[in-house]
Design brief:
Helix content is 72%, strand content 0%. It is mainly α. The radius of gyration is 22 Å and the shape is elongated.
Length: 281
């Protein structure tokens, strides 16, 4: 009964429903591509190059004769995997650091926050470009580069949320009861900042997809034969005069996915934080 009530409340947030629907479609395409695509993307067919939409190829083919629907499906898998793993790195490393800084304070807090400021001094994409340029191109290095930038983001969110709860009555009561800092964080702090971390996670997920596309576009992300939306844009730029749709499809895929994630994040913020809850329209 409680789950049904939660679903009814969530359904009232139209931005959340719209964003979740878009994200669900993209996720479904990515998951399906693990076991099936209309055509294999690693098989080139010169005879079929630059064909327009048809029953055989719903969105046509690219300059190598590869099916565009298949490329978009595999590209979704690559972009989502890179962004998801990068966000995971940010959460697994950044959240404990932020909670540690809030709990200990003093020189440790100051050192961690100044290190955060140093990372924030560089734009996210520029930082990722520098890291992948040093470590070499590839999807794994793109994940590490984007994940490293996500660490201070989640550290700052976790620290801010923990500090706002530090003087609350239930935390003080737990401390008086003899609970240690680790137990207080696990039982009282983390559950109460989970909403902040979830919303921030959706935002960083969308930024991760943009960062992956940017890195792949400049040749520092996913490498052939792995398909990526950013790499599809890179390969399409020389064919703009002959087939502009080659750039249109991956570009739209990126825009729609990021839009869906932002709508979902906005809806989750309204749903999970009563102070920011707005009247649904």
């Amino acid at each position: 009964m409680a789950s049904r009530g939660a679903l009814r409340v969530a359904a009232q947030h139209k931005t959340l429903v719209a964003g979740a629907a878009i994200v669900a479609v993209v996720l479904a395409a990515a998951l399906i591509s693990l076991v099936w695509t209309p055509y294999p993307i690693d098989v080139l067919s010169v005879a079929d190059r630059l064909k327009g939409p048809s029953p055989a190829h719903l969105l046509g083919t690219d300059q190598f004769g590869r099916d565009m629907v298949s490329m978009l499906m595999v590209g979704a898998r690559t972009s989502i995997a890179v962004a998801l793993l990068a966000v995971g790195i940010g959460i697994l490393v950044g959240v404990p650091l932020g909670l540690l800084a809030a709990a200990r304070g003093g020189w440790l807090d100051e050192t961690l926050m100044r290190a955060n400021d140093l990372v924030f001094a560089f734009p996210a994409l520029l930082s990722a470009v520098m890291i992948t340029a040093i470590m070499g191109p590839g999807a794994i290095n793109a994940i590490l580069a984007i994940g490293i930038f996500n660490i201070p983001v989640f550290a700052r969110v976790a620290r801010g949320g923990a500090l706002s709860l530090k003087s609350r009555e239930f935390v003080l009561a737990a401390r008086v009861a003899g609970k240690g800092e680790v137990r207080i964080i696990a039982e009282h702090v983390l559950p109460n900042i989970a909403n902040l971390l979830i919303v921030q996670g959706t935002i960083q997920f969308s930024l991760g997809i943009l960062a992956e596309a940017g890195l792949s576009y400049v040749g520092l992300g996913a490498q052939p034969p792995l398909a990526s939306w950013g790499r599809m844009l890179n390969e399409a730029q020389t064919m703009m005069a002959l087939a502009p749709s080659l750039a249109l499809y991956p570009g739209l895929a990126i825009v729609v996915t990021v839009l869906g994630l932002n709508l979902m994040g906005d809806g989750l913020r309204d749903l999970l934080d009563p102070r920011l809850k707005r009247r649904t329209v």
